[in-house]
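User: Hey, quick favor. My workstation is busy. Could you predict this chain's structure for me?
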Amino acid sequence: MSSLGNNHLLVHVNGPVMSCVLNRPESLNAFSDEMILGLQAALEEAKQNHEIKVVLLSGAGRSFSAGGDVKSMGKAAPHDIYEHVGELNKAILMIKDLPKPVIAVVHGYAAGAGFNLALACDQILAGEESQFVLSFAHVGLVADGGGSYFLTKLLGPYRTKELLFKAEPIPVETALGWGIVNRVLPLDKIEEESMNYAVHLANGPGKALGMMKRLVDQAEHSDLASILEQERLTQTMMVTTEDHQEGVQAFKDKRKPGFTGK
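Assistant: No problem, here it is.
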């Protein structure tokens, strides 16, 4: 058990994998300031700790996250909301900037900003019968946490507006077909299989995976010529890494490479 985390965010470091568990199961892991600040601290540790290769983000209890805490809505002053969403935005940007894979493991509901937090991750592994919903219209709010950005890039403006306007749940099979979800896992094996997948990624060429993440994310708002040049410059750096040399030697030796992330 790591010394990181708090009552609302449990953090475990198991070898090269950091697991962050949203931990307010009595409220379907609705966000709190304590939870978001804990996530920021965990992501900073993952960035600084070279032994950590992959981050898993999941939820305790019956669901991944209900997003904003409806029980506290209508009570906070606008300034408090501005500050709270600002901290969420910081966490979202930290996920995108982390040069390591961040994998969301979703079961039950991923609703509102909880859905958007999952979308900020690099991949989503979802349990059977899980559902995704942009529920903001039910409480007279707009989407926060980047959903308007992520889903417009993925689905286009028309389908995204429909999801926002209607605020109806998306079954996991539909989410898989639309490319929101990468894999659907049996609920009784979701923890085991997601950890196995994380370990598989952790055993890969860490620097290369981090640069792949950066290039793909940059491609969302760059032109082809810019990405081609970024790939060119990045490749120039990658050929100097120990992982590249190990990969080439392993290919020659007809064996599995032993990457170290260096």
